[in-house]
Write a structure and sequence with these properties.
TIM Barrel; ten-stranded parallel β-sheet; two-stranded antiparallel sheet; globular
């Protein structure tokens, strides 16, 4: 089965650079990713973030990309589902309109929020994010798939109404969630939804457990768009012409991202019971922030090296039964991101999905030809 490749960005802007310019660079990166064979572009949703991360309105970017691209699919990674961030009906409306304008290229992945900075700014209660996400997804499905719908729940009560317009894809675009706990993997599976699985630097064994948990519990939703499990993994990527070049350019940005995570998740674990599972992965988080060998070789989250090295690293993940990989190409200047997209498109994607078009040594081809003559 073909492995799907995603370009994932949080629109991170370098110190001293312009947020406005960075947004235009992001569009150029997404357009180039389509040219280089990526299957989808995923944008994070982050609000009032400190530092360079600035993807505050990805739904606006998708509308623009719908006109700038023709093939690549558009996928939030993720839309925040607490009501104070995004009312579920507004999410359904935006999804439907952008799906129409992109000629059926939208997808929808949901999440709860993972920063107290954003939660407190929008008066979001951490203890309610999980139930609001799950109820909001149920409301979205009803609104998009039925002519006239109504909904009654703890957070949403909608009298008989009609969503106008409805999405081009029927019954609705692919929907999934970002899953970082055992419970979330089981929920996505039992709902017949796609899953974006993240082990939060806890290692290969934990990632394998999550993959098995999702696939073993998956049940087809007869009213939904998926006919089989769909599991993707976000991967932080550093790539260069050589292993040393990749390490020189990416080691500090990749470890810094892990340090940011180390700072955020322990606080969340103390706020609400639904986030307690974050505390179980603190050892991996702390090692990833300080130990380069652990981050690249053992955390199950990060690829770094030459194209040949990245291919070897990625083959391990593919062997685990993954359907999609999302390469986090961010945290470095625009020119380096474009170079990374170019190398992924030239070397990584063809290796997995178009091997007959990859140039091989002449002797290897001749030996195969001679072997076929003798047979």
């Amino acid at each position: 089965m073909t492995l799907k490749f995603g370009f994932w960005s949080e629109q991170e802007t370098q110190v001293g650079h312009s947020y406005a310019r960075r947004l235009h660079e992001l569009v150029d990166e997404a357009v180039f990713a389509e040219k280089m064979g990526f299957d989808f572009v995923s944008l994070s949703e982050q609000h009032v973030a400190l530092g360079g991360i600035s993807s505050s309105a990805p739904e606006v970017v998708y509308g623009y990309l719908a006109a700038k691209t023709s093939r690549i699919r558009l996928r939030p990674a993720v839309t925040l589902m607490p009501k104070n961030f995004n009312h579920a009906l507004r999410s359904a409306e935006r999804l439907a309109v952008t799906d129409i304008l992109s000629n059926g290229r939208m997808e929808f992945f949901a999440g709860r929020s993972n920063t107290t900075i954003a939660m407190r700014a929008f008066n979001v209660e951490a203890a309610e994010t999980l139930s609001q996400m799950e109820e909001g997804l149920a409301l979205m499905k009803e609104a998009m798939s039925k002519d006239i719908f109504k909904f009654s729940g703890k957070h949403y009560n909608v009298p008989p109404r009609m969503l106008v317009p409805k999405p081009l894809q029927k019954p609705y675009p692919i929907m999934g969630i970002a899953a970082t706990s055992p419970r979330s993997h089981v929920y996505a599976a039992e709902q017949g939804m796609a899953c974006l699985s993240n082990n939060f630097y806890s290692g290969w064994e934990k990632q394998a457990e999550y993959i098995a948990l999702y696939k073993d519990n998956w049940k087809r939703d007869e009213n939904g768009p998926l006919t089989r499990p769909s599991l993707g993994i976000p991967l932080f990527l550093g790539i260069g012409k050589t292993d040393q070049e990749a390490k020189d350019n990416y080691a500090e940005p990749l470890m810094n991202y892990a340090r940011i995570s180390t700072d955020a998740y322990p606080r969340l674990a103390k706020i609400a019971d639904d986030y307690n599972y974050f505390s179980e992965g603190l050892e991996g988080l702390q090692r990833a922030a300080t130990d380069w060998d652990y981050l690249v070789n053992d955390s199950g989250t990060t690829l770094c090296g030459s194209p040949d090295t990245v291919i070897r690293q990625l083959e391990r993940i593919v062997d685990m039964g993954v359907d999609e990989v999302l390469f986090h190409l961010d945290s470095v200047p625009h020119e380096m991101i474009m170079d990374a997209i170019d190398m992924v498109g030239k070397y990584i994607i063809p290796h997995f999905n178009d091997r007959n078009n990859v140039v091989r040594p002449t002797d290897e081809i001749l030996n195969t030809i001679r072997g076929m003559r003798d047979a």
